[in-house]
Amino acid sequence: MKVKVPQKIRIISHTYDIKMRRELRVDEGFDGTLNFRTHELCIDPVTLGDQRDQVFWHEILEGLNYALSLKLPHDDLDRIAEGFNYIFQELNINLDWSEIKEG
Fold this sequence. Notes:
Structural class: alpha/beta
Number of strands: 6
Low-confidence stretches: none
Shape: globular
Strand order of the largest sheet: 2-3-5-4
Helix content: 25-40%
Largest sheet: 4 strands, mixed
Number of domains: 1
Order of helices and strands: EEEHEEHHE
Radius of gyration: 13 Å
Mean pLDDT: 96
């Protein structure tokens, strides 16, 4: 089952624009970022498939970690995102990125 990634996502009380951003990996050293100031969730378009989905879940977890002051270490967010991604794959739930544009 395909689930469309929305152009905006609300994480608790914050709304983030979801965008593809070229050279993110080169410029910042990450495949994805969640910017609390600009309210943007960005993923480098060179990140594909399951890896892109996992980065998306990771950035959502970053937003929850921030909004709820959970103070979870970055490595724990990686592991939880990996778990989410695995569960969704097992349920045959895949993300459809067709509406997400570069920005």
